[in-house]
Design goal:
Layout (H helix, E strand, L loop, with lengths): L2 E6 L12 H10 L5 E5 L1 H4 L2 H6 L7 E4 L2 E4 L1 H11 L8 H32 L5 H23 L11 H11 L11 H11 L2 H14 L4
Parallel strand pairs: 1-2
Antiparallel strand pairs: 1-3, 3-4
The chain binds glutathione (GSH).
Length: 214
């Protein structure tokens, strides 16, 4: 059955791979599943046809036959559960890998998004200069703990899993801030993720869309 995902017609990051379709593309590449992409404009995302797929008017969505999913956590878990390559067979190891997916989305991503939004949307406010260091410190906390847990290991719990895929993609959003480099083991962890051939294919595919003329 054909898999179709949605992505930005023009990503605000102009192809840096930070838009969340990249993590879904990456998961599909890791498990070797071909997919099609329907590009949507910001305006189209808020229209009834897209809201039927994604009640919050965002990308990415995932369609496969009758199945329609939104939320990258759910989409990537679905992909990982239906195709080998992203979750271990051992039941406990599998549960732990899924736990890392949740940790990426529920613990690590929110303060990173808060920082990105503070820079993007609030930098002209008179209180921004005082607030920004506080927001950055709220990112450093979980990064320090994540870095301690990763230690010298390549991946968070044994072999590369959907948990690592999600964590690496979440951490990538920090790159422009320079914060990631304060944690060399995490910067190396992200680089290891980016070196995977599946990631490179996913990155190239989204870049192609975002550098197209016209
Ligand atoms: N929690 C959602 C977040 C989805 C999301 O925020 N998508 C962004 C692109 S990365 C979006 O569509 N933004 C456009 C908008 O909110 O209008 C997920 O993980 O899928």
């Amino acid at each position: 059955m054909t898999i179709t995902i949605t992505a930005f017609e023009r990503s605000p990051d102009r192809g840096m791979g930070l838009a969340r379709d990249t993590r879904v593309r990456w998961a599909l590449e890791e498990v070797g599943q071909p997919y099609e992409v329907r590009l949507v404009s910001f305006a189209a995302m808020k229209e009834p046809a897209h809201l039927k797929l994604h009640p919050f008017g965002k990308i990415p969505t995932y369609e496969e036959g009758d199945l329609v999913l939104f939320e990258t956590g759910s989409i990537i878990l679905h992909i990982a559960e239906h195709h080998p390559g992203l979750l271990p067979n051992d039941a406990n190891a599998r549960a732990r890998a899924i736990t890392w997916m949740f940790a990426a989305l529920n613990t690590v991503e929110p303060p990173i998004l808060e920082l990105a939004n503070a820079k993007l949307l609030e930098s002209d406010k008179p209180w921004s200069k005082d607030r920004l260091p506080l927001v950055a410190d709220r990112v450093r906390g979980p990064l320090k703990q994540l870095s301690a847990r990763l230690g010298e290991a390549d991946w968070l719990d044994g072999a590369f899993s959907a948990g690592d895929l999600m964590m690496v993609h979440v951490l990538q959003r920090l790159k422009p801030s320079g914060l990631l480099n304060e944690f060399p083991s995490l910067a190396a962890y992200v680089a290891r993720g980016e070196a995977r051939p599946a990631y490179k294919r996913a990155f190239a595919a989204q870049l192609e869309v975002n550098t197209r003329k016209g």
